[in-house]
Amino acid sequence: xxxxxxxxxxxxxxxxxxxxxxxxxxxxxxxxxxxxxxxxxxxxxxxxxxxxxxxxxxxxxxxxxxxxxxxxxxxxxxxxxxxxxxxxxxxxxxxxxxxxxxxxxxxxxxxxxxxxxxxxxxxxxxxxxxxxxxxxxxxxxxxxxxxxxxxxxxxxxxxxxxxxxxxxxxxxxxxxxxxxxxxxxxxxxxxxxxxxxxxxxxxxxxxxxxxxxxxxxxxxxxxxxxxxxxxxxxxxxxxxxxxxxxxxxxxxxxxxxxxxxxxxxxxxxxxxxxxxxxxxxxxxxxxxxxxxxxxxxxxxxxxxxxxxxxxxxxxxxxxxxxxxxxxxxxxxxxxxxxxxxxxxxxxxxxxxxxxxxxxxxxxxxxxxxxxxxxxxxxxxxx
Length: 382
Ligand code: SF4
Ligand code: SF4
What we know:
Elements: E1 13-15, H1 39-51, E2 60-65, H2 73-87, E3 92-98, H3 105-113, E4 118-123, H4 128-134, H5 144-150, E5 156-157, H6 162-165, H7 168-178, E6 183-184, H8 198-217, E7 253-254, E8 260-261, H9 273-280, H10 293-298, H11 309-316, H12 327-347, H13 354-371
Parallel strand pairs: 1-2, 1-7, 2-3, 3-4, 4-5, 5-6
Antiparallel strand pairs: 7-8
Helix pairs in contact: 1-2, 7-8, 8-12, 12-13
One iron/sulfur cluster is lined by residues 245-247, 251, 263-265, 308-311.
């Protein structure tokens, strides 16, 4: 759904169950099958959502999450009907991320009929052997064609594991070749990597090189979430003290019992009671609660260095003080993003607006100058 009046969408989520039918190797959640949302609680959440749309937002995207949300398919349908009956005058859409395994013919029929108002996003990790290793041997249980046919513009969500990193480029190219243009979630926030370990830098370099070659010549110039950084933002003279996400404001999360929490990451499935209580004391409206001043003032790539405050809290017990163990890998990825821009400009500079082009070229120069020396020991493989 497009945002209305260029305002951001209100994007709350409802956790309909803590239960999951898979046991993915990187999952950080605790799955307790007793915790499921009742229809009464779900209706109360929907009432709250449509009566509390922030003034600076327009349109509502209600996301169902779990566990695996399709375990509660009957509840999803009931919530859809309730919302339609009571709030059809508000522009809204429903969304759920699924592992795809439970989708049977009855569900497919319903989703086909409601595909314009209810979108399913598929979690898919790449090559069948990699997906199977990460996600409980589930590749052959997914009707991938159904997702492509029903929501052709929808991307997939890919999560990295130690195992998939070895074939990162092949996994990404495989997914694009299946027909998905967008790949979200290729990020460094999930999983248990210690990104300060140099072995990951050595693994990533050849994969990033392959991806630069691929994206310079394929996929209509679109790239995955990891490599689509607007490096020209690094050249902005007046940096904005902005949050990376809507935590605590636009991304309100309702747990199965209706408890309101700041976002899908900051829940009892991830944090203990004491940590959650501390988290809830945060002033979420104040962007400064989420800005590391050292990053803001001294790091050139601050505007494009992605940040999930929830995942950061898990490591640093802070939203403000960033986990710097990821700096090196973020600089490396940004170097390859700069490389990709350089190749795209050589291929077709007319694809860029003149003003942007100027800033992109300045950013490419600075990123190479500042960060290439840090990777001197890898120059022979870069
Ligand atoms: S803290 Fe992380 S999971 Fe939560 S809304 Fe922000 S980016 Fe998303
Ligand atoms: S690379 Fe490191 S110092 Fe720079 S913005 Fe990211 S976390 Fe901060």
